[in-house]
């Protein structure tokens, strides 16, 4: 029976053969609810597009619907070598095609143009390249491992079942669903039924689960588990899960069950205090900030936390790093008569754009070895220079000295310590004096 069709989501209950045939041809996710039937045969459909629930509660069904209604990715028809079937020939296909869960590229979120290449470095089959500052994916070569998705610091790559949009829809839905206290990430090979209070989140491969998703669930006081059902899988998901769990255990004071599940407070109900927006780094910063009180100090490269070292001698306080950082990890503040350059480790994605743009080559970016103890740290101080005529603060001592060196200015000319407005008046006055041959020309403006 067709229960409903909402957008691209099709929901069937105890479907007959005709309805199953419709499900196979449906372009989108399908939920099959079994109440009287024990099983159904849905071969020919990609496993990430089919969700089978056995006698689910209303809350379980509504939670899954919330996730799938937020799905913005889809399967790709990828041509492969091999003979085509009679059915494919009748459908007008001249090449054999299969459905593949190839990552979708979201250019607006990508930082490749700033130097980020995490996805390229992560791909085990070299299916990803950066061309003209954009990510290009070889669909035929892609093995659907999801490593590029989990390694991307901004969520610019998404797969069916491994998309920040879907995940955030689920977590926000759990604000009103009290029965679910655990999220288990696993791949379609794992066909076990959810246990009491557990939500099984099906991902293409556990490699697609990044530290962001784990941290976001933990701060909602949910128990988090990542299960790789095949320890010998060639995609290496079991090893990745072990390393990721160890990274969290080393950094935060967490409880760990015998099955490797992580939790902050085992008996605490899911929190309603946090709403996620689906912007990966922003949500991650929000989660890590709330986990800071649990931090032990030691971090791991899997957690994507970076540090910046600024050479206090070389820095001219030009402000290029502050103005150009794509994640706004730098900030400028005042402390009395001094200007302070601040840096937020959690916002930094390690692209190195600031280092390449710095005219003094004073910045070095690296993986953080320690978890930051505060939201932002002061990294450079400089004296504020005020205009000698109007008294308005307009520059810093470091920048003025660097300007003198760069322009080859000798001595300490008076105009160098004037604000732009007063400097224009000063220049006009000097031009008038030179033209008239008179000194001390007065202005009546």
Automatic annotation (TrEMBL):
SUPFAM superfamilies cross-referenced by the UniProt entry: 4Fe-4S ferredoxins (SSF54862)
Keywords: 4Fe-4S, Iron, Iron-sulfur, Metal-binding
PROSITE patterns with a match to the protein in the record: 4FE4S_FER_1, 4FE4S_FER_2
Gene Ontology MF term list: 4 iron, 4 sulfur cluster binding; metal ion binding; oxidoreductase activity
Keyword flag DNA-binding: no
UniProt keyword 4Fe-4S, yes or no: yes
Lineage: superkingdom: Archaea
InterPro entries: 4Fe4S_Fe-S-bd, 4Fe4S_Fe_S_CS, Fe-S_Ferredoxin
Domain 4Fe-4S ferredoxin-type: 101-132, 133-162, 306-335, 339-368
Protein name per the record: 4Fe-4S ferredoxin-type domain-containing protein
Native source species: Vulcanisaeta souniana JCM 11219
